[in-house]
Amino acid sequence: MANARLVIGLILAAATFALALTNTLGGLLAVEAVLRNVALIGTMTIPLAAAAFIVGWNQRSVLMAGLLAASGIAVIIPATIATGFFAFIVVPGPILGVIYGLGILGLGIAKGIKSARAMPPSSPSAATAAR
């Protein structure tokens, strides 16, 4: 039986990735047709990513790290395009999407580093070479 905390964390990370990917691929028109408030999708990725990171705190999962990192990149892409590739930066504007995306990407990288350090070596010779 799978660990319940790991499964919940993976579901939250997958939901984060789904929202971020919807925002990236759908653009404003497709999202606006479904949800009237476009900022809701970008805003909901932040607590979902934080919840996935917190729930999976002591769980080793490279999949969760990859989903969080991909979500962060998916949030950064439309925000970077909206700023005109940083040609103009307005503080209460699309630059916040870049900042939020970097935060989510950082959670994914931190989870990946923690998962990689917690995993045992793959072979006995690698363990002796590391000493």
Number of structurally distinct domains: 1
Largest sheet: none
Mean pLDDT: 80
Question: What share of the residues does DSSP label as strand, in percent?
Answer: under 5%
Strand and helix order: HHHHH
Helix content: over 70%
Number of helices: 5
Globally, the shape reads elongated
Q: Give the number of DSSP strands.
A: 0
Task: Show unreliable segments.
Answer: none
Radius of gyration: 17 Å
Structural class by sheet pairing and helices: mainly alpha
Distance N terminus to C terminus? 35 Å
Describe the protein's architecture and organization.
This protein is 76% helix and 0% strand. The protein is mainly α and 131 residues long. It has one domain. Helix 1 (4-34) packs antiparallel against helix 2. The longest helix is centred in the N-terminal third of the chain and has 31 residues, at 4-34. The protein is elongated, with a radius of gyration of 17 Å. 30% of the residues are buried.
